[in-house]
What we know:
alpha+beta, 2 domains, four-stranded antiparallel beta sheet, 15 strands, 29% strand
Amino acid sequence: MPMTLPEFTAEKSLGRAAGSYGYHVGRNESIAKGGNLMKQNGLDNDLSNQPGDGMDTPAIAPSSESSAGIALSPQTGGGTCSCGSPGGKCVCGSAEGSNPDDVGMIVPSYVYALGRVEPRFPSLAVEREFAQATGRAETAGLTDLQVLHAVLSQRQNRYLLRQLCWVLTIEGLETYLLQLRDPMDLDLLVEALRPKPSPADVDVVVGLRGPIAPPEMCNGLMVPIVAFDQIYSFDRDSLIKSIPRPEKMSAKQFEPAAEELFDRIMQMTDNAGATDEHRALNYLAVRYPLIYATAAEAYGRNFSLTAVEVRPSRLSGTRNIVDTIFSYTHRETDVTEKYFVRVDVTEEFPFLVSKLQPYYDR
Length: 362
């Protein structure tokens, strides 16, 4: 089945970010598309020596309009809210610009989560309708999961896609109930179905978090609703193979290091992709190749990855910027080296502010 890989293009945002914030941007690497090698003169040249920096959410109502905006209802107070166009801002109670003190404004809660998307039957009627649709399909010799994929992939059964519940599970726990912001995004849900699921399958969900779902919405399941704008569906091996590899590093050395770092990020405690720290970390895991190259290079020098932490950046002002810090400790001398990268997580789609560079404690 076709996969939707996020592609490692984080550094493409650096030129625009530098113009907006006035950050110094070093030389750009040239990264070939399609999983080719990263063109660089060696990892040490890519790391500049700049020092480092020492549940109440809006309810989501379904909308038949385009993904330019989604209707929101505030938890308290009167009036209605809208989020999206123009400017991607959320406004409550009055038109944008009519409230100079931003009274009534609500701040949306964003999600950038790594997990697995699974369909569920919300009611007995929908389950029986699916059984009838299965009776019209050729299913001899197929497993139950293959039947589910075959039936829901057929155009004439597209109505069932809109009736099912779509749940994002993280580390086996039901975490979010997904909701369409645009009916055209049904194709993203179809791509998330696997006829042969594997523990290495990964779905990246980017969207807006809402309130806890009412029990009648999905057969008693009460988890936060996420109105998604993008879903990437792939398996871990495909992601690792798509990472641009440094020219001076063999696949035998690079791929195990990349796999270990990715697994470490996936297994971090309580990473539901809802906090700024976790959104930044998940974004880097699927969009920034240099963190993997640095890990492989550190392992080659007998260093071990000992910590991954995210801290608010001192550069945060009108924008919400965080520093993601990777710590490597030498296995014999216990000397620790730290590297960090800045990520802007102000809005729904995070982006890179500065490249990976050495971090110095203050």
